[in-house]
Specification:
single chain, 219 residues, alpha/beta, two-stranded antiparallel ribbon, globular
Length: 219
């Protein structure tokens, strides 16, 4: 697996990921532990993989691109929406001071917490919650990252973003989205398009409804 991980890092560099800290974090975290045993042989392929409950672990390039856009220095408190397997939370924990990760599916949250605890991460807290509402209790956050697709940017996330902070989020339809890096400076919002993408839906009050997602899945 070490050779496969090193090969993935070289691939990410060729694809334009230049943040050495992000590359180092992705070279350290064992992605194979965050996917089902049946797909561990694909852990370092640059592709998303299913993790159960209709959810996926994101493509490594997209994880690297999103994380790089946050420009973390090690001092930030990060809010992650969509813990999933916990892999991206581990990457963030290598790069930031504290990570608050939200997951709406209790089974995934529990599984991620057990694995992250076993790997020794002590700067991650996981909550079962509607991610579209954020986690106001610990706001503001210098960085917010959303790993599911929203029809629009949830207002609570912008409210909880610290001045000078960055929010990375995929926005669009259920079928395709654009990945945006949104910065807040002196209460003014600026948006940068990082490219097209496709994520699982963000379900919640300011996201897609369960009914809309069920209809989309049965299409």
């Amino acid at each position: 697996m070490e050779a496969s991980r090193a090969s993935l890092i070289q691939h990410l560099q060729r694809e334009g990921i230049s943040d050495e800290a992000v590359l180092a974090a992705m070279g350290k975290v064992p992605r194979e532990l965050f996917v089902p045993p049946s797909t561990q042989y694909l852990a370092y392929a640059d592709m998303p993989l299913p993790i159960g409950q209709g959810q996926t672990i994101s493509q490594p390039y997209i994880i690297a691109l999103m994380t790089q856009a946050l420009a973390l220095t090690g001092k930030e408190k990060v809010l992650e929406i969509g813990c999933g397997s916990g892999y991206h939370a581990a990457i963030l924990a290598e790069l930031a001071a504290w990570v608050v990760s939200l997951e709406r599916l209790e089974s995934l949250a529990s599984q991620a917490k057990r694995l992250l605890d076993r790997l020794g991460y002590r700067n991650i807290e996981i909550h079962v919650a509607d991610g579209t509402l954020g986690w106001e209790r610990e706001a503001p956050y210098e960085a917010i990252i959303v790993t599911a697709a929203a029809p629009a940017v949830p207002p609570p996330l912008l409210d909880q973003l610290a001045d000078g902070g960055t929010l990375v989020i995929p926005v669009g339809s259920l079928y395709s989205q654009s990945l945006y890096a949104i910065s807040k400076r002196d209460r003014k919002i600026q948006r940068r398009d990082l490219g097209s993408c496709r994520f699982v839906p963000l379900v919640g009050q300011f996201g897609w409804s369960e009914e809309e997602v069920a209809e989309w899945e049965g299409y």
